[in-house]
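Researcher: Structure for this, please.
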Amino acid sequence: MPQVNFYILHTRSRQEKNRLACQLADKAWHQGYPIYIQTNSIIDAEKFDKLLWVFKEDSFLPHDIYPDVSSTAPIRIGYNAQVCPDMEVLINLTETVPPFFEQFKRIAEIVDDTPIAREAGRTRYRFYQERKALLKVHKINR
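Model: Predicted structure, token format:
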């Protein structure tokens, strides 16, 4: 069962949630982990793709939108139930647990500060808890 880190983000800004996801991807990539970022739609995947290009002025995070079968990028952005194999870290930007969650060693769940997001986060927390995942909670104030 994977280690699941919940990041409770105390802000209502959608940009802060995505910025934190970029920071987590940056950290995991520099630690040598291949990363899969799950979004809600192709539109969200494309927006996140653009954000990764400009997230940091002084560095580049090699990434692409999955499925691009010719790519070997260590950071893949997905938007459906099809998952990229051989990824170790999942950054989930959706309000549900992806059906393929068990294939990852680590999962990052980011919960922003809205009533709907908090309730969805509690549901995901209970889901992982029932499956005996190692859970950690980090409170982020921005």
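Researcher: Any notable elements?
Model: Strands lie at 3-10, 35-38, 63-65, 75-78, 89-92, 106-111, 134-141. The chain has three helices and seven strands.
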